[in-house]
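Appendix C: a fully annotated inverse folding record. The material below is reproduced so that readers can follow the format used throughout the book. The structure is listed first as tokens, followed by the designed sequence.
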């Protein structure tokens, strides 16, 4: 389903670590240790809104969001999963899946614009990336 000419927005590339490649989306981990935060980016050039995707791709996107959210919740237990596709700064279509815990650095408000990111330490990042990759690979994607 990936479109030709797709390039990941440089801001997403700078702020994330690649986790996995699903049939439609790249799964990225936001490099902010305050929140376990995945970003799914459909590999479709020029796509800014979910409604810009063809119907079958929209269905696939929701399947992949569910898959990534379930994997994140398995790896990082949380009180609430926040989903969002804002795109006010980065126009390229991307969907945030954020594991929230009561009392986290932004609770109960949104994570966007809530202080400066705290990058993961090297070993912490490697461990989380490995666990997320294993969970995404071990659970089935419809």
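Designed amino acids, in order:
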């Amino acid at each position: 389903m990936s479109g030709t000419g797709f390039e990941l927005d440089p801001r997403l590339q700078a702020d994330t670590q690649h986790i996995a490649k699903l049939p439609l989306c790249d799964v990225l981990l936001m490099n902010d240790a305050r929140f376990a935060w995945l970003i799914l980016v459909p590999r479709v050039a020029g796509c800014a809104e979910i409604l810009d995707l063809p119907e079958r791709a929209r269905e696939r996107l929701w399947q992949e969001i569910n898959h990534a959210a379930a994997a994140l919740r398995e790896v990082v237990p949380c009180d609430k999963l926040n989903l969002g596709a804002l795109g006010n700064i980065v126009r390229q279509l991307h969907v945030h899946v954020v594991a929230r815990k009561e009392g986290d650095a932004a609770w109960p408000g949104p994570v966007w614009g809530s202080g400066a990111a705290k990058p993961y330490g090297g070993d912490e990042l490697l461990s989380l990336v490995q666990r997320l990759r294993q969970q995404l690979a071990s659970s089935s994607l419809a």
